[in-house]
Design a protein that fits this description.
With 166 residues, the chain is of the alpha/beta class. It has a single domain, classed as 3-Layer(aba) Sandwich (Cytidine Deaminase, domain 2). Helix 1 runs parallel beside helix 5.
């Protein structure tokens, strides 16, 4: 299974999150043999927890599947650049490689806002950005456009999303 195929699995998780009304971020963790050992998507609203990010869910599942907190030979595929919490969790889990899709301009920790991986942490993963970036960004964009339309409808405002005035 190649990198794009793995990111497509993460995109499936992101779409599951969107269907559940969650911000559509998805993540899969693959072991050194190429087996998916962890999957996750955002569940913050469902769990009422600030910690229920896709990466955290996938890391927890991978640790259970492998019977170890060390994910040293694993790669993480996530549709959105990790936030500081998730980047720290990846470092603590000793994940070897992170592949992300879209940049996170508000809290991205792989270079968009700051780069946690240039710090002097032991066991830093190698980080690769922009994998299926347009598709990952489109899933997020569609979700937030839908959310804005819903809020406009609830407030009785006209839908101007297709008028060129957005």
């Amino acid at each position: 299974m190649e990198h794009e195929e793995r990111m497509k699995l993460a995109l499936k998780e992101a779409r599951r999150a969107a269907c559940e009304g969650e911000v559509p971020v998805g993540c899969v963790i693959v072991d050194g043999a190429g087996n998916v050992v962890g999957r996750g998507h955002n569940r913050r609203e469902q769990k009422k927890s600030a910690l229920a990010h896709a990466e955290i869910e996938a890391i927890e599942q991978a640790c259970r599947a492998l019977g170890d907190w060390r994910l040293s030979d694993c790669s993480m595929y996530v549709t959105l650049e990790p936030c500081p919490m998730c980047a720290g969790a990846a470092i603590n889990a000793r994940i070897a490689r992170i592949y992300y899709g879209a940049r996170e301009e508000h809290s991205g920790s792989c270079g968009s806002v700051f780069n946690m991986f240039v710090e002097n942490f032991p066991n830093k993963p190698q980080v690769y950005g922009g994998l299926l970036e347009e598709e990952c960004a489109a899933v997020l964009s569609e979700f937030f456009q839908g959310l804005r339309r819903k809020h406009q409808t609830e407030r009785g405002l006209p839908d101007v999303s297709n008028s060129g005035n957005s």
